Amino acid sequence: MSSPLQRRVRDWIAAPAYPWVTGGVVTAGAVAELIVIPAGVTTTVGVLVSAASLMWRRSFPPIAVLTVAAGLLGFAGDVNLYVSIMVSGLIGCYCLGRRRVLHPALTVAGGALGAVCVNLVHINTWSRMELPVPALWEKGSLSLFAESFLLTVVVFGAVMMGDAVRSREETRTERHLAQARMIAMERQQAAEAERAAIARELHDIVSHSVSMIAVQAESATYTTPGLTPEARDGFQQIAATARSSMAELRRLLGVLRTSQGEVVLTAPQPTLDHLGELVEQHRAVGGVAELRITGERVPLPAAWELSAYRITQEALTNARKHAPGARTVVEVDYGAGRLLTLRVRDDGPGRGAGSGPGAGHGLTGMRERAALVGGRLSAGAGPDGGFLVEAELPWGSG
To answer: What 8-state DSSP symbol labels residue 355?
Structure first.
């Protein structure tokens, strides 16, 4: 987890004023350096353009090409290497890699070519200064190109650093999007499961009862002797109302049983045997999870198996949402006395005020599932930090 100081630094770098402030500081330093160490027209223009262009590097990243080119031009015009040229050149190369203005290989190749050109200009300058400079391609002449080699290494390092930062941010963004998609999918599946459960209850209980009312009311007109015309009409009206209710119920089931809901209705309900798959899904979106099972695996009634699975699923979802990157441990204990104990704990920073009793639909839903099978569930800070969800689900007398 990042410290408050790191977060403040990131926020400052991300601020719109950051390139203007840093570019202005480098430009002011370049002016001061030129006053102390005067240079020719070519070097002066190169130093100032290279420094000043940094102010537009975020709003118009291709200007970093001008930054590097002007810096090389300023260095070629004088044998002295100004500090402002080094700073602006490094920032420009980093920006070219960070913003992918060109492919990194092309950027490095261009920088290497510029470094060789600067080196050749300096070799010509050294020869005019009557320094002992060997002729090109003679013995000892390769040492003259050490300058271009060092410049190429510096360009390569700055460009690769920018490209590495860009790749890391793209990976982080993709991971966050994958987590968001996973959470959205789980929420959609939970909603579809609830719709399917409602449809199943309506079909299996309410629909059956209403159909029985219609049959019994209609048959009563033929099986009950001595009915008055008014009573016979009353039974017929009851039967007609029941049939009308059945038609409305079928339309309601058609709304609930969407194409996705049908899959939920026909697919087998998950059990504790599917916890391994659930943990793997958590890992697939960047989470760190471990499954620990103690005791002898005992097949539980369907309601207990489903409740335990859903509680674990919701706890993992909360861990991804509130403690991304934290290590999560899922413990399942088939204890004595027909007691199933579930523990889902992470080493994140905790949930804060929103994790208290009754807070959040997720915790409420988990408590309701535990209570549905006669169990209990607690959620809060763990004894060793992080967050702990613990459920005890008794499934029979000992």
So the answer is: G
Q: Which fold has domain 272-394?
A: Heat Shock Protein 90 (3.30.565)
The residues, any chain, with a CB within 8 Å of residue 306's CB and separated by 6 or more, are 269, 270, 271
Distance, in Å, from the CA atom of 224 to the CA atom of 91, rounded to the nearest integer, reads 97
Tens-digit pLDDT profile for residues 173-200: 888 888 888 888 888 888 877 777 777 6
Share of the chain above pLDDT 70, in %: 85
Q: How far is it, in rounded angstroms, from Cα 293 to Cα 57?
A: 55
- Between the CA atoms of 336, 328, 369 and 334, what dihedral angle is there, to the nearest 10 degrees? -10
Nearest to 82 by CA among 107, 122, 47: 47
**Which ranges of the chain would DSSP assign to H, the alpha helix?**
4-14, 18-36, 41-52, 63-76, 83-98, 104-128, 146-201, 207-223, 229-256, 259-266, 275-284, 302-322, 361-372
Domain ranges (residues) in the chain: 4-178, 188-266, 272-394
